[in-house]
Records
---
Amino acid sequence: MADIPTALYEADGDLLRPTVLTRGPWDPGSQHAGPPSALLARAVEAEAGIADGQVVRLAIDILRPVPLAPLRTQARVLRPGRRVEQLEATLLLAADDTPLMRARAWRMRAAAADLPAGLAHPDPPPAGPDGLPAAPRPSFFLSDESYFSSLEWRFAEGDFEAAGPAACWTRLRAPLVAGEPAAPVEHLLVMCDAASGVSATLDWTAWTFVNVDLSVALERPPEGEWLAMVARTRPGEAGAGVCSATLHDARGRVGSSSQALLLARRQ
């Protein structure tokens, strides 16, 4: 594989300049929604008021395609609190402040909970990633210079090219923003927007199935280098679909995600 950029975004003051590692499969001039979603999580954490708190829900609306162009983020606290707070973050096109994506997040204080025996153990993760082969670039990504190369992919079930449910592990191959270590929750957002791609039920060459949102609910903060998703897509007969996934780290389940999909035949 050719050398890849050293980050998904380069910071330039308050501007965030995307690299080719953010390029999606639908349009060579547009980003995959995973990396911009992670930027929104980053913006939420920067504005948060509860020190050492945790994101427990992040609901992201994709208002329009995100171009491969400089971006910036804005964030504000909607509901302050000592134990629970709500924030909003918006991703803007730097050239004219057009809103591209918007997220609302709930954060809570993190405190040890004395749960009954057995309830504190997370559901086990899928098998792997040790011993699983790295997935080759799928045919619908025409170049290594794309979102696919931002992550290393290892499938425990299914495959990019196989229709149906899938389980895969990923690790970031470059930080989200140059010069900053990527937080596990940022990795999670980069990854889980691809749940509808890894579990696609329709032929990529004949259909588009673009998500208009991404909603993530977390039971606990993700940890470690490797994260996984177990995903299933269900198309509906009225031109919409839903993708649901459980999200894991090496210890087990950390939460779930869902996406609403617009289904359409390619012209």
Note: The first strand starts at residue 9 and ends at 12.
---
Amino acid sequence: MLKSMRHKVLVFMSKHMIACDEAGFLISYKQDKRLGLKKWVQLKIHLLTCHLCRKYAIQIKQLEHQLAEYRISSIQEPCHHHLSEETRTKIQQAVKKEMDVK
């Protein structure tokens, strides 16, 4: 009985488990769009078993939170950093030179 149940669990896991690279993609993807039920379940199962992907998911969530805070603060405090005309010209020349090389 126990062996049969274990076998069923292993078969289920092999059919529905995703690799870390797909999990990483889904973690990033769900920041912008909603996952379908199947992909959501696959990701949740993967995150239950993989501590590295769980850590990555936490880091992505923290990064998204920090970006949201930055967006709010940048709206409230306008940027007062301006490039000099000389620096602007140097950058334009460097970009043009790089574009001509390729």
Note: The radius of gyration is 23 Å.
